[in-house]
């Protein structure tokens, strides 16, 4: 092979993205778990982990810059590097959502949860599942998979609607519960956003493999339509 | 303006980054080169790290080749040339007159701008160096020739025609033959003077890949006017430029990745971004 | 914008006009010049073919196998040949090559490597002078230097005179060829730690060999055709026959060196010398024979040239793979 060294570096880069991805996945799962158990220490730990995620993201970004500067990537390689720049920023944002959830847990202090968490952990599970498969598709440049995954966003949206309605019920019954309901709504909202960002990763994967820059229909709009 | 030793901070700790300490295979200390009264190079200070590729870049006429040719004393061939300061190879000053030029040149091999195979067959081209150093037995020579050609990634292409003329090969193959010829005497350092400037892009990439392969066992110093090439292949980059007395100076030396993403010197920045002038 | 377009259109018009008016004249000039050069080429070829044709025509009538294998017979007897002259030419040419090649080639190495040293400049200058010296002067010089002290004419003296004649050609061609060897080749060898002399012998000389051989053979061809230097040195010898010398030598139990000495240390003849002598004799049969000698000489020189070409071609093919 002609550019063995460069190929190896690209492979290493993808591996790094996977590492960042699993850090984000772990952060999401952990943040919801900590909330569920009202474990403040665990949430503190998530804030700390988020700094590691941010650092990892900058490291990969730096590595990307070096590859672009020194290897003069063209065509597929250029798309890969440019898109990876975008993907790591998406992953870093997912870390921030987890951090947001951890912050909510901490700010709730000793207030009990408004209701036991059922759908929210489901959302987190679905998010992580989608993210995991999206990253696998990215590494393998699997266009088929990348085209299918975004549709599953509907499931997350449905769960979000479910949580939203439930919380509204609580508020209507007892307006004093509005603050505690709001905490959980934010958590659900963060988790809903994660799925949207997974869609972006899939779009990038398709772009890397085919060069086609397509917006995959987001179900976001439908959600807001339903609310009005 | 001295750029003595360099603090290598590992900016990115990517996967598989080996934190082996860098050893300076060669050290250039306050070296100046004169041609008669003309000072071609002024106060060069740099380290050449073991098992790394160091690139020297800079505009035409800035003394890159003169610097490179000081390392194996090819400047001795120019009658009026004179060197001040020192170049240490494993701590010994090779510019000192008592040092044996032949020994210096065995330890520091060279590959030239244009492929220059001798008008002999492929086998004899590679065996030339070992023969010079007294290796005569056919078995020994056979092994050396095969090993060198394999290292130079040429063996598969020529193993069935070792007794054809070296000149019958394509340009890229000829250059790899010249690399094999240089490797055959097991040098420690290999100097490359724009080794791909006469080659097509594919042959160029092949030479670059070859450099990556062999640098595990050797230390490589390459002069190139092709910045992209320096960026692709090297671990360290030295930027040279002529000063107001038309004498070459080293204005920046550092890790290639920082030279090409975040140079410290404005002139380096202008040069690597193509705004020089 | 419109201005530029207008100008360029005007310019194109002008060009077109010029073209139209010039084309017939240009065609005529071209035709005239072409026929003129062709005619002159033919004119230059006429003497060449004439000479060759005439020599073949006149000489061919006299040529037979005896001519190559027999010594001359006394006048009035039919047959006989110029074996003595053929052998003499070979002996003198070989001696000349042996004497001229080593110093010529080595001097050329020096001149190519150190062109600007005093010795290098002196060498180039004296080579120029030497190549301008008339060949008869060289013969005279060899006479004073060798024939006089030795007390007799000899093939050896002839060979040395020829060697002096060949020297400038060999030095010049070798030097030119060495200069043509790319500098990078020399550096490639030196960078491997090879000393200069090894580089010269192992790398530079083979690279320059084609040219050197060509120059050498041309020098030989020229020497083979020279008459003047031999007048005072080899003199001529109608009884010269190497076969006889060797047979007698073996019969008398002489050593190889003694036989060799007898071959070179007596007057010998050569083809041009014989040609010159025969042609001025008042006997028609000798004059007729001189045409045949001319033909043999021509074939000899041609053969050397053809051999040189073939050798160079074969070597080139081997080198280019």
Question: What does it look like?
Answer:
The complex is a heterotrimer of chains A (228), B (277) and C (321). Chain A has 228 residues and is mostly helical. Chain A has helices at residues 4-37, 40-71, 75-108, 119-140, 143-148, 153-173, 178-210, 220-227. Chain A is built from eight helices and no strands. The mean pLDDT of chain A is 91. By secondary structure, chain B is an alpha/beta fold. Chain B has helices spanning 64-71, 101-107, 122-132, 138-151, 155-158, 171-183, 201-214, 227-233, 256-261, 266-272, and strands spanning 24-35, 38-49, 53-57, 81-89, 92-93, 108-111, 189-193, 219-223, 236-242, 248-255. In chain B, helix 4 (138-151) packs across helix 6. Chain B is globular, with a radius of gyration of 19 Å. Chain C is extended, with a radius of gyration of 28 Å. Chains in contact: A-B, B-C.
Describe the global form of chain A.
elongated
Helix content of chain C: over 70%
Look at the structure and name the CATH superfamily of chain C. Answer: MetI-like
Percent strand of chain C: under 5%
Which structural class best describes the helix and strand composition of chain A?
Answer: mainly alpha
Determine the fraction of residues in helical runs of chain A and give it as a percent range: over 70%
Global structural class of chain C: mainly alpha
Residue-averaged pLDDT of chain A, rounded? Answer: 91
Report Rg of chain A.
Answer: 19 Å
Largest sheet of chain A: none
Radius of gyration of chain C: 28 Å
Shape field of chain C: extended
CATH class categorisation of chain A: Mainly Alpha
Q: What's the total count of β strands of chain C?
A: 0
Number of domains of chain C: 1
In N-to-C order, the SSE pattern of chain C is HHHHHHHHHHHHH
Give the H and E element order of chain A.
HHHHHHHH
Which stretches of chain A of 5+ consecutive residues score pLDDT under 50? Answer: none
């Amino acid at each position: 092979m002609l550019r063995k060294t460069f190929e190896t570096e690209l492979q290493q880069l993808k591996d790094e993205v996977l590492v960042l991805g699993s850090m984000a996945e772990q952060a999401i799962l952990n943040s919801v778990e900590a909330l569920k158990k009202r474990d403040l220490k665990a949430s503190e730990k998530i804030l700390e982990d988020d700094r590691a995620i941010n650092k990892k993201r900058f490291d990969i970004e730096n590595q990307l810059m070096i590859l672009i500067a020194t290897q003069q990537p063209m065509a597929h390689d250029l798309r890969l590097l440019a898109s990876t720049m975008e993907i790591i920023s998406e992953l870093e944002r997912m870390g921030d959502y987890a951090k947001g959830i951890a912050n909510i847990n901490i700010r709730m202090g000793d207030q009990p949860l408004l209701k036991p968490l059922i759908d929210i952990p489901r959302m987190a599970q679905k998010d992580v599942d989608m993210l995991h498969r999206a990253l696998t598709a990215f590494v393998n440049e699997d266009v088929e998979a990348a085209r299918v995954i975004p549709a599953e966003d509907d499931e997350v949206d449905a769960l979000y609607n479910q949580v939203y309605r439930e919380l509204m019920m609580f508020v209507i019954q007892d307006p004093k519960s509005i603050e505690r309901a709001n905490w959980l709504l934010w958590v659900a909202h963060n988790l809903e956003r994660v799925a949207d960002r997974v869609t972006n990763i899939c779009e990038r994967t398709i772009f890397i493999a085919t060069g086609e820059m397509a917006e995959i229909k987001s179900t976001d709009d439908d959600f807001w339509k339903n609310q009005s | 303006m001295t750029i003595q030793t360099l603090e290598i901070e590992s900016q990115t700790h990517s996967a598989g980054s080996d934190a082996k300490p860098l050893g300076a295979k060669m050290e250039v200390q306050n070296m100046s080169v004169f041609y008669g009264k003309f000072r071609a190079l002024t106060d060069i200070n740099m380290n050449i790290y073991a098992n790394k590729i160091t690139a020297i870049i800079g505009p035409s006429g800035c003394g890159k080749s003169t610097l490179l040719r000081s390392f194996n004393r090819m400047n001795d061939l120019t009658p009026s040339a004179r060197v001040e300061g020192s170049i240490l190879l494993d701590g010994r000053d090779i510019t000192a007159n008592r040092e044996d030029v032949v020994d210096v040149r065995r330890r520091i091999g060279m590959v030239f701008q244009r492929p220059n195979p001798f008008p002999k067959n492929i086998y004899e081209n590679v065996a030339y160096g070992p023969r010079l150093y007294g290796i005569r037995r056919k078995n020994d020579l056979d092994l050396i020739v095969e090993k060198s050609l394999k290292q130079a990634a040429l063996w598969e292409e020529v193993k069935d025609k070792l007794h054809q003329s070296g000149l019958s090969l394509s340009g890229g193959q000829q250059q790899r033959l010249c690399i094999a010829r240089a490797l055959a005497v097991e040098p420690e350092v290999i100097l490359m003077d724009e080794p791909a400037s006469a080659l097509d892009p594919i042959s160029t990439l092949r030479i670059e890949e070859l450099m990556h392969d062999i640098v595990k066992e050797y230390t490589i110093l390459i002069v190139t006017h092709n910045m992209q090439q320096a960026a692709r292949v090297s671990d360290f980059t030295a930027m040279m430029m002529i000063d107001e007395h038309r004498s070459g100076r080293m204005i920046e030396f550092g890790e290639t990745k920082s030279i090409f993403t975040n140079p410290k010197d404005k002139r380096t920045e202008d040069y690597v971004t193509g705004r020089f002038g | 914008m419109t201005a530029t377009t207008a100008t360029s259109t005007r310019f194109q018009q002008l060009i077109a006009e010029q073209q139209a008016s010039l084309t017939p004249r240009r065609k005529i000039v071209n035709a005239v010049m072409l026929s003129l050069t062709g005619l002159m080429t033919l004119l230059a070829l006429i003497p060449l073919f004439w000479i060759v044709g005439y020599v073949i025509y006149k000489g061919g009538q006299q040529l037979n196998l005896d001519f190559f294998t027999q010594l001359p017979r006394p006048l009035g007897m039919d047959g006989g040949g110029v074996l003595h002259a053929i052998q003499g030419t070979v002996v003198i040419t070989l001696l000349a090559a042996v004497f001229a090649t080593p110093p010529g080639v080595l001097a050329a190495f020096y001149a190519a490597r150190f062109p600007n040293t005093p010795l290098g400049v002196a060498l180039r200058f004296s080579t120029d002078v030497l190549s301008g010296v008339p060949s008869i002067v060289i013969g005279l010089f060899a006479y004073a230097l060798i024939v006089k002290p030795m007390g007799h004419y000899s093939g050896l003296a002839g060979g040395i005179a020829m060697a002096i004649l060949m020297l400038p050609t060999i030095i010049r061609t070798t030097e030119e060829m060495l200069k043509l060897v790319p500098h990078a080749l020399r550096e490639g060898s030196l960078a491997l730690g090879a000393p200069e002399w090894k580089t010269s012998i192992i790398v530079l000389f083979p690279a320059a060999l084609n040219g050197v051989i060509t120059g050498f053979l041309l020098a030989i061809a020229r020497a083979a055709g020279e008459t003047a230097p031999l007048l005072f040195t080899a003199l001529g010898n109608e009884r010269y026959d190497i076969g006889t010398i060797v047979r007698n030598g073996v019969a008398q139990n002489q050593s190889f060196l003694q036989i060799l000495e007898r071959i070179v240390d007596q007057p010998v003849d050569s083809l041009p010398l014989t040609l010159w002598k025969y042609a001025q004799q008042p006997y028609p049969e000798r004059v007729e024979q001189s045409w045949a000698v001319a033909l043999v000489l021509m074939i000899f020189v041609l053969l050397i040239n053809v051999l040189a070409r073939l050798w160079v071609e074969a070597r080139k093919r081997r080198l280019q793979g």
